[in-house]
């Protein structure tokens, strides 16, 4: 079963919903619990209880070393994220995509890229990175590297993702609602979600993601081909005539053109630039070990 971070409060709320459903539908409590669990993105009620136990266990797992956590706090205090971004982490909805998948994202006006969130997401992503073991006998990055060696690796890991913040009026209240919302944007699986203060790492084979309905069935060329200059069009024709034209190259160039538009500049920010600005302004706090 896939893991869904599940707090004791969440279990209590689901249980209350199940009791209400039992009264209104005249079904057994077990059936009502399974129904409510499935409505919230779980497989069944047993899935809820297993995830709740795993969540308790995960909270006792190793976290960031103090020097790394303090450095993140320093970076955030010197150049903090936008207020809307910080609010979204506490009470809203943010998701991460692999950079390759993000290039195919059918972004809408309800979402905006939030590169300023890098030091906030790092608090959840870096513990996974530095404590990961390939096998029981292998060492973690934290165990095998000095702070000076670990520092650039942790920073570079963030370049694998792009982060988007939801700006719609109604924030999803459950993981199921969040997944349904994202399936309209992309058939690809997001890597991580932050929903109402909870962090959800997503497995690549998560069955909640499938070939969701696309909001816009047009190709990138059909949507943004008008941004081509005469020189771009001539180059494409030349490449086609010589058999060297590749659609993925054309899509990549159109994506760059899209980002140069006023709307594109508002939606797509450089995470690399955000990290350099904020991290460069922070005071690195090295490990004393």
Structure description:
The chain is of the alpha+beta class and 289 residues long. The chain has 3 domains: 52 residues; 164 residues, no CATH class; 43 residues, no CATH class. It has 15 helices and 5 strands. Strands 2-3-1-4-5 form a 5-stranded antiparallel β-sheet. Helix 2 packs across helix 3, helix 4 runs antiparallel to helix 7 and helix 7 crosses helix 9. The longest helix is centred in the first third of the chain and has 18 residues. It starts with 7 loop residues before the first helix and ends in a 9-residue tail after the last helix. The C terminus is likely disordered.
Low-confidence stretches: 210-216, 276-289
Rounded Rg: 22 Å
Give average pLDDT, whole number.
79
Shape: globular
Secondary-structure element string: HHHHHEHEHHHEHEEHHHHH
Helical segment tally? 15
| N-to-C span | 39 Å
Number of domains: 3
Structural class, from secondary structure content? alpha+beta
Main beta-sheet annotation:
5 strands, antiparallel
β-strand number: 5
Strand content bin: 5-15%
Order of strands, widest sheet:
2-3-1-4-5
């Amino acid at each position: 079963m896939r893991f869904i971070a599940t707090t004791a409060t969440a279990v209590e709320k689901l249980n209350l919903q199940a009791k209400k459903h039992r009264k209104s539908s005249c079904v057994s409590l077990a059936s009502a619990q399974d129904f409510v669990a499935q409505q919230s993105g779980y497989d069944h009620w047993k899935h809820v209880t297993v995830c709740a136990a795993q969540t308790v266990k995960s909270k006792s797992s190793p976290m960031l070393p103090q020097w790394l956590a303090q450095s993140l706090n320093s970076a955030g205090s010197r150049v903090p994220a936008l207020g809307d971004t910080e609010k979204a982490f506490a009470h809203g909805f943010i998701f991460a995509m692999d950079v390759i998948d993000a290039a195919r994202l059918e972004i809408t006006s309800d979402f905006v890229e939030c590169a300023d969130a890098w030091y906030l997401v790092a608090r959840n992503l870096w513990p996974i990175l530095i404590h990961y073991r390939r096998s029981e006998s292998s060492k973690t990055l934290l165990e095998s590297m000095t702070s000076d060696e670990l520092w650039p690796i942790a920073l570079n890991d963030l370049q694998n993702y792009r982060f988007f913040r939801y700006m719609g009026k109604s924030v999803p209240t459950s993981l199921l609602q969040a997944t349904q919302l994202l399936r309209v944007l992309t058939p690809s699986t997001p890597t991580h979600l932050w929903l109402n203060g909870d962090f959800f790492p997503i497995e690549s084979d998560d069955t909640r993601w499938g070939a969701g309905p696309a909001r816009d069935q047009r190709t990138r060329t059909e949507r943004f081909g008008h941004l081509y200059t005469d020189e771009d069009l001539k180059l494409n024709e030349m490449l086609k005539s010589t058999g060297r034209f590749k659609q993925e190259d054309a899509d990549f160039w159109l994506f760059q053109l899209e980002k140069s538009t006023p709307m594109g500049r508002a939606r797509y920010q450089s995470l690399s630039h955000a990290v350099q600005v904020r991290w460069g302004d922070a005071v690195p706090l090295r490990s004393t070990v």
